[in-house]
Write a structure and sequence with these properties.
single chain; mainly alpha; Serine Threonine Protein Phosphatase 5, Tetratricopeptide repeat
Length: 693
Amino acid sequence: MAEVEFESLFNHAMRGQWREVLESYEQNPEVLEAKITKAEDTVLHIAIYVSQTIFVTTLLDNISQDMCRNILRMQNSKGNTPLHVAAELGNVEICNNIARRDPILISYRNFEGETPLFLAAVHGKRDAFFCLHGHEQNKDDDSLSIKNNGDTILHSTISSEYFGLALQIIGMYPKLVNVVNHEGLSPLHILARKPNCFRSCTRMELIDRIIYTCSIVDEDKEERYDIQAHTQTSHHYPLNYGTCMTFISLLNRFFKVTTTGKDTKAAATSDEENHCSRKSEQEQAKKEKKNHWFPPNWESMIRILILAMKVFLIIFGVGATWVEKIQRKKEKHIRAKQVMNELIQHASLYKYDFTGPSPRVEELGGGDIDKIKSNTENEVIEKRRMVSPILIAAKMGVTEMIENILDMYPVAIHDVDSQNKNVVLLAIENRQPHVYSLLNKRSVIKETAFRQVDINGNSALHLAATYRRFKPWRVPGAAMQMQWEYKWYKLVKNSMPPNFYERYNKDGKTAKQVFIDTHAPLTKEGSKWLTKTAESCSVVAALVATVAFTTSTAIPGGPDQESGMPLLLEKPAFKLYAVASLVALCSSVTALVLFLSILTSRFEEKDFVIDLPRKLLVGLTTLFTSIASVLVSFCAGHFFIVEAQMRFAVYPIYAATCLPVSFFALVQLPLYFDLSLAMCRKVPQRSYKVFFH
């Protein structure tokens, strides 16, 4: 093809001049096979990229069958055919058109081994996926859903967090549940690495929790793809007719549900599906119990109340986007839990794979026995390299997965990684309080798993005493991090057998020695912060004490020359002045003493738990009280020297004078709450904004 014609075709495609492209084809049919971009895309690739459905349909309808097959099998630099592109973009009409013309293209792979079916699943294009699945000739061939690195469509959909599609893939391809990729990871491993998809690993504020609790997500909702709706090419009625009829049907169903609690269409669909699907007896019992205790339309009424609450929240400043975001988060948590339940139920993680009778030792010679032992050791080493899903979940803090796996497979408690760490050691090492509490409640686990030691001889108490370089706790500052670290160490220590307290690891250290050694930098940093804070606050407290002492000894209006009593003693402002000056003096002196006691502290590890935080909290409180009292005494004393006509004018000035104190109080509120909660809580609160290695 001439260079001028090639450039002309490229310009037409870039500018969207598809009529000119058809004219170029009529003059030279070979233009459709030309690769016109650096990515080696053809005109058909580009047309699909920009969603030119009419052009693609017209083009394929007006060319020969051989030419159609040739251009549909053209690959770009990534090995993608036009069907790959359509599946990736989720263009159902083009996918249906191409797959109907050449079904073999569904099994074509690009250079990464991805089929169009795979790309549709990876990008969460549900309709395109089911369209291609409907055209697939051999639906039992699971190889179409696996790429070169061993990842399946189930791996990819879970990794991309398309859990609704993943649920349907499990139903269509149950064998993919136990398929591992080249890294040895199954879909359950991938899901265990996503703690943000589970409620136990999500921290929300009070308003977020209220909205989260009030949101309703249909757990049994399952979207179905109707291939007949997309294969219809002609309509015998106006396009807006279907929209109008659908709207009227929805209004009719809404009226029936809200008045009678019954939906005839939904009931008919449910009856039809019940004949085709299997439901457990437990689910049936739950539904019968629900229907027995609640009126028929209770769910509709609850939804109306939830909607009203959302409107109320939006009116009072909580944006609709915020509410929808929390709603999507809850839906993701529920869908992820459903996928997890299906994966665990269909997985064969702990099932013995019988491949034949194993040789009996008594029938073998000494050399054969050594060979078998060597092979067994190699197998054990190889298995230890593969971390089981429950260990990943323990590291990430996914309590839902740990509880479900232990209920289904109790032997999972014996799983260890390459460092010989089980689920208990990993949970304690990675500071997962919820996982620890879950495991600590199971007496069987507590008797066995809590006694595990790793390859370095570290017990659970050693790992609790080891400080890592990330900040796991939801508190600011090194001092409060140190407080939670010591509380975590004491919490684990109380759950361990007494004979583990003085246990030595391979380095010859007890857990207490490990705690002192590894937490030395954090102790130093926390001591430095407390010292600077106490020094600054003690200077302010000393200044306030000086002013308060001077104020407390002064008498507004002077004393009576005969009796020595203040002349303004009966005035309410004088009484306020006297009390405020006394409170200012006492509280400033108290704050000064407390901050000096912090400066003279020994800063031992246990001092960070109660002693130092309590002194800091009380010191800040008394310092704030002294500053506020000084301002009150100043305003009360100044009140006497202002003329009666001007007193109403100075009230705003008094209020403005109190603004700095109010601002200081607001700034210190988070620190107050953190210190107060830290001293009250026994179990630390975990932060999940941490990168795991």
